[in-house]
What does this fold into?
Amino acid sequence: MITVLVAQVTVPTLALLDEPPTRFGFQMYSAQGGVEVTATDVHGSRFTPDLTNSLAGSLRPEFDWTRSLPEFVCEVTPRAVGVTVTQPEQKRSVRCD
It folds into this structure.
């Protein structure tokens, strides 16, 4: 019984030291946070691309799916010449080729 209790505390505590979200850690079900995607067209107008048919409704938080998001938006949004992805801790902009 003691071994089970020790394991239930030790495993999540060790996982807490890793970069979140970590499988089996206290942050296992945490998300990437709010993500705002803004695209710019050839006239310099900003618009929000429609990604409802391109992205799954519930993305797994343990994968950093936002890393390649700007390039993906460029691929699926032909009128975009630039894409900016904003999160609470970072902002990344790319020019679409």
User: Anything to note?
Assistant: The chain has two domains: 1-28, 31-97. The mean pLDDT is 81. The longest strand covers residues 82-87. Residues 2-16 form the longest helix (15 residues).
